[in-house]
């Protein structure tokens, strides 16, 4: 499917009046820096200017391209596919008005025309696709920065919201695909594709329901065997399942069956969007982590919250060795607690954090570290951020700097050092739990 996510040429079908969907997709592709050939197509012809570039609008497609993006009224889509089928490898059908509103025959005709010409279809009723490393933003959703997360979403609107939230969370993406009604290609195809995509480190999947359970299980097991697969399942309740059926025409089915399938395949299920991105952040930094955790904090309360959450998630509070305890006692003020969680107290500075992290990291009883910082006004958060970055440690270090403006500069410095921040002790603990499942 490289012709979708790394295309060298693309044709866009629809209206190129400002504000129209085809116009917005063309604008996203141009402004995103796509350096392949772009062919806008509309029977009325004319020209369109985007970001200082003028394009001739062709009345029809007459040259081969890798992919077509189609945003025209649903009733005209099958005949268009028949017309251009010999010139394209795949089509992204943005147009709605197919099986999701009861037009099952129209959708069947669309698939028949595509199969007749040997082309693949994404959609219909979808929000488009991104191939971020190919600088291809074939959607009207907000653009994102390059990274390792491939987002597969049955819902276009959810996908758009998730991309925007990902930007806020400073997540880097390799790809995005909204597949809508899944008339042809579906979640199973994309799981297999991204499992083998060299730019994808982790896969996030939003699903409401699947049609072919056996095929989905095989694809999920294949993908999860190669990379972390993070799943957010909607339609768990009876009412939610009904809503999912009316949304994309798919059967949500029994949630218990889905949950068992995810576990059996080795996928990681999260409960909400926040979890989707926390898991993605964790896997962007580390492939996996052990279960024995050391908590280092400068504030007792958050340390206790982290400890409670870690234990409730099935992780262990590491038993520090006698050597580690003695080494910590040798330089920490007597008011500090050297039992796990290790409380460095409020005035902990660069040296206290850095040295503690390094000593604890060397302990054979410790698999991973959770470092918490609630800086007092007289200790800049950047100082502690620098300590975390500079500390020599070859084990996963998950960080919780809190809160808000107080740690803004420190969090920025951590980001520049490739370290993601988790804004609460509980979210940091969950990140370690997800890593431990690998």
UniProtKB/TrEMBL annotation:
The keyword 4Fe-4S does not apply. Residues 4-98 form the CoA-binding domain. Keywords: ATP-binding, Ligase, Nucleotide-binding. It comes from the Archaea. It is an enzyme of class 6 (ligase). SUPFAM superfamilies: NAD(P)-binding Rossmann-fold domains (SSF51735), Succinyl-CoA synthetase domains (SSF52210). Pfam families: CoA_binding_2, Ligase_CoA_2, Succ_CoA_lig. Its EC number is 6.2.1.13. The keyword Ligase applies. It catalyses: acetate + ATP + CoA = acetyl-CoA + ADP + phosphate. Gene3D superfamilies: NAD(P)-binding Rossmann-like Domain, Succinyl-CoA synthetase domains. GO terms for molecular function: acetate-CoA ligase (ADP-forming) activity; ATP binding. PANTHER family: ACETATE--COA LIGASE [ADP-FORMING]. This is acetate--CoA ligase (ADP-forming). It comes from Thermococcus onnurineus (strain NA1).
């Amino acid at each position: 499917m490289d012709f979708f996510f790394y295309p060298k040429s693309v044709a866009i079908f629809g209206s190129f009046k400002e504000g129209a969907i085809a116009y917005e997709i063309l604008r996203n592709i141009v402004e995103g820096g796509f350096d392949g050939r772009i062919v806008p197509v509309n029977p009325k012809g004319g020209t369109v200017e985007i970001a200082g570039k003028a394009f001739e609008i062709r009345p029809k497609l007459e040259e081969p391209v890798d992919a077509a993006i189609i945003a025209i009224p649903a009733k005209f889509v099958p005949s268009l596919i028949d017309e251009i089928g010999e010139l394209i490898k795949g089509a992204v059908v943005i147009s709605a008005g197919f099986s999701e509103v009861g037009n099952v025959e129209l959708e069947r005709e669309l698939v028949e025309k595509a199969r007749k010409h040997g082309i693949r279809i994404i959609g219909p009723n979808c929000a488009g696709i991104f191939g971020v490393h190919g600088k291809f933003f074939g959607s009207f959703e907000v653009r994102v920065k390059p990274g390792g997360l491939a987002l597969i979403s049955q819902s276009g609107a959810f996908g758009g919201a998730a991309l925007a939230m990902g930007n806020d969370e400073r997540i880097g993406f390799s790809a995005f695909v909204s597949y809508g009604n899944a008339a042809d290609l579906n979640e199973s195809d994309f799981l297999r594709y991204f499992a083998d995509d060299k730019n994808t480190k982790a896969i996030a999947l939003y699903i409401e329901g699947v049609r072919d359970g056996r095929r989905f299980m095989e694809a999920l097991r294949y993908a999860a065997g190669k990379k972390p697969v993070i799943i957010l399942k909607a339609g768990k309740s009876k009412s939610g399942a009904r809503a999912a059926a009316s949304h994309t025409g798919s059967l949500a089915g029994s949630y218990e069956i889905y949950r068992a399938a995810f576990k059996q395949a080795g996928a990681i299920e999260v409960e909400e969007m926040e979890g989707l991105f926390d898991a993605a952040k964790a896997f962007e930094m580390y492939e996996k982590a052990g279960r024995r955790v050391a908590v280092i904090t400068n504030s007792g309360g958050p340390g206790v919250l982290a400890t409670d959450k870690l234990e409730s998630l099935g992780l262990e509070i590491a038993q520090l060795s006698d050597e580690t305890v003695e080494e910590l006692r040798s330089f920490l003020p007597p008011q500090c607690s050297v039992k796990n969680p290790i409380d460095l107290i409020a005035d902990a500075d660069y040296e206290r954090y850095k040295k503690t992290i390094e000593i604890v990291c060397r302990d054979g009883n410790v698999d991973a570290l959770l470092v918490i910082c609630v800086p007092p006004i007289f200790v800049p958060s950047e100082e502690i951020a620098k300590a975390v970055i500079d500390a020599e440690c070859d084990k996963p270090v998950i960080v919780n700097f809190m809160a808000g403006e107080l740690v803004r500069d420190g969090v920025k410095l951590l980001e520049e050092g490739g370290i993601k921040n988790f804004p609460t002790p509980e979210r940091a603990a969950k990140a370690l739990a997800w890593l431990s499942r690998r």
